[in-house]
Design brief:
The structure is a homodimer. Chain A has 12 helices and 14 strands. By secondary structure, chain A is of the alpha/beta class.
């Protein structure tokens, strides 16, 4: 069964680790968010793509929740000592990847081509494709001003309430190669438990991707990133409350209106899922270990009539 | 007493450590070689400037002889694993400097401006100035082909005999700011014990620098990089033999014809210095420790009539 997953970074990456226990990784295509890509020290950093890459090749730091395991920070220490740009935490091992990617981009490679090359070198078994090779950047409109995603998220610690989310470049962005083919050939489409606004939103802001989802012939399911109306991590709940008017399964569904047939919700949100406009699939969604991740993947795939 | 030193990398850096024990570092200007600068992974690396920077701020790895002490190689490990450009050994701590410099250059800073900024951040007390802010790159013509300096030196381990040395960009290169002023205001000019062809040659290939040296009103002295006709390290002896016809003080002097008034030679070369066209200053030149470095600096400054 061929599965296409729309995914942000950390939460999505964790979900994918469960998914590849349930379906053949060779049958999984991940369309990754690039709205939070950022240039740091002249390097192109794709945090969400890298979170997936690292998580699925055993390189991720599980405790820290981002970046690589067994990481050191010597280069950044020098940068700091020299008064350079050091707000974005780039570890040494991580840096090597950004150097290789940035070099390839500078030499004219597309983001999807270099992503494929990096994935292949690290032995990634799924197909990881950025949503677009074009420049698409998430910006947040807040009472304190308009910020690029990482400026808001990292530099300002996402403390500013968000009044609007804008995807610069989206109107002209085209899906990267393989994205539409993967969606067209999928048996099921899954939206990972990622932030609907800043992780999945940028992907759906690419018109042809959104259109392909809207015109799908196969079931699509989203996994809610909320447990008991709260985000496990990050600002998803605050954003849903302010931008969608609440933090129940209804508001999550609203974010994906016309694009999903089912929503996986946590047991803690089951009561709030009553009367949902799509099928509610209730399970425990906290991905505490391999078994929990696998259970969540199985629940999501129920929508395709294929419990593993 | 104001001293201007023309210097390559490691040998020059070692000489400078002795010099700043003998004269006030605030009175020392170093005109550094940029002919072996190289772009690696899209980063601008200035090995000779950095060797001096690290050596005089206590950051250099004394045992390895290049790069920074307490270094790690994690970024390069990733680059290697990803099939990126890994032939040039960039350590993690070192990398941070290249990132900051490359960013500044990309933003339009001159090499001399960013060098000054880096030097200031690291507390360098001497004034370190690249010979030129223009692109000037040493190339070696060898039986195996024509190679950029680092390709010949690092990638090919300087195994190819050199038939000619060419300084690409030299014809249009201008001295960096402060270079001519420093030369004009110097009480003595010293050519460090560096390779005449690939360390000092690129500096002298900048016409206005060479002209300023030729027109000097103050004594100039070179320190021979040879001991007993052999280079302490590197290919200087092989190059002198092949390109200048020998490895005695006469050939070293010939490299600096019209530009020096004295040559500091090692005791082992004293006999070969007979009949030299410039004053020969004989001492022990191997810089084994601080005392030896200091002694060599004092010998070099004898030419200015100012034994410390």
């Amino acid at each position: 069964m061929k599965v296409v997953v729309l995914s942000g970074g950390v939460g999505g990456a964790r979900f994918l680790r469960g998914l590849v226990d349930v379906v053949d990784p060779a049958d999984v295509t991940v369309i990754g968010n690039v709205g939070d890509d950022v240039e740091v020290l002249g390097l192109h950093v794709s945090p969400d793509l890298d979170s997936i890459l690292y998580a699925l090749t055993g390189l991720a730091d599980e405790e820290r929740g981002w970046g690589r395991a067994d990481e050191t920070w010597h280069a950044l220490g020098t940068v700091e000592a020299l008064g350079g740009e050091s707000w974005f935490r780039l570890g040494d091992r991580d840096l090597g990847l950004h150097l290789v990617r940035s070099r390839a981009l500078a030499e004219g490679a597309s983001l999807s081509a270099i992503t494929r090359r990096l994935a292949s070198a690290l032995g990634l078994e799924i197909d990881l494709v950025p949503a677009t090779d074009d420049r698409l950047r998430t910006h947040l409109v807040t009472p304190a001003g308009r910020f690029a995603f990482q400026e808001w998220f990292v530099a300002r610690g996402h403390r500013d309430e968000v009044d609007a989310v804008e995807y610069d470049g989206a109107e002209s962005a085209l899906p990267a190669p393989r994205v539409l083919d993967a969606l067209g050939g999928a048996d099921a489409i899954v939206i990972a438990p990622s932030n609907p606004f800043v992780s999945i939103g940028p992907i759906l802001a690419v018109r042809e991707i959104r259109d392909a989802l809207a015109a799908r012939n196969v079931p699509a399911v989203a996994v809610s990133p909320l447990i008991g109306g709260r985000a496990v991590k990050g600002p998803a709940d605050r954003m849903l409350a302010r931008l969608a008017g609440g933090t129940t399964p209804h508001q999550v569904t609203q974010c994906y209106k016309g694009l999903i047939d089912a929503l996986v919700v946590d047991e803690a949100d089951a009561a709030d899922a009553e009367g949902l406009s799509v099928q509610a699939i209730v399970t425990r969604t906290l991905m505490t270990d391999a078994a929990a991740r696998r259970r969540l993947a199985e629940a999501a795939l129920e929508v395709a009539g294929t419990p593993a």
